[in-house]
Amino acid sequence: DETYAKGLRNYWKSGNFTTLTNGAIDDLVKLARSMPTPQSDILFSQLGGKIGDVASHDTAFPHRDVGFVVTPGARWESAGEDDICMRWIEEADTLLSRHEDGGQYVNFVAERDGGEDRAYGSNLERLRRLKALYDPDNIFASNQNIRPAA
Predict the structure, then answer these.
(1) Greatest alpha-carbon span in the chain
(2) Which residues are registered as beta bridge partners of 17?
(3) From CA 140, how far away is CA 138, in angstroms rounded?
(4) pTM (2 decimals)?
(5) How far apart are CA 85 and CA 110, in angstroms?
(6) 119 in Cβ contact with 106 (< 8 Å)
(7) I need a surface site. Which of 23, 46, 86, 112 has the fewest CB within 10 A?
């Protein structure tokens, strides 16, 4: 789609929040005022409801008590903007990590970061054992890969 149009450069970080405190909102407003490009954004996904009815160990997704997923995203067109856009994301991540509860939604894990420990939390070792059982050669390794247990 146009948000992630072919040729645009993208970088994002994401974090889970049980609630959005006044301090988190203040920091989000600061970040919104300093976005490096018009295409950049801060995505808020509200969770809750039925996802909390499932135990955290019953599926791969363990973060059943999360209220919000917040994902600052920088998008830009030219390599000349790489430093400023990537620096904004790193600053956003540092600023927001003071308020988040740990963990992140797997769809928002940036490929360069790995992040499976934050995405799967206490379920990761079980998922690695399953991966070793069904895909020991790690053939299905694109995107947010879970490495098989040794």
Answers:
(1) 48
(2) 68
(3) 5
(4) 0.85
(5) 15
(6) yes
(7) 112
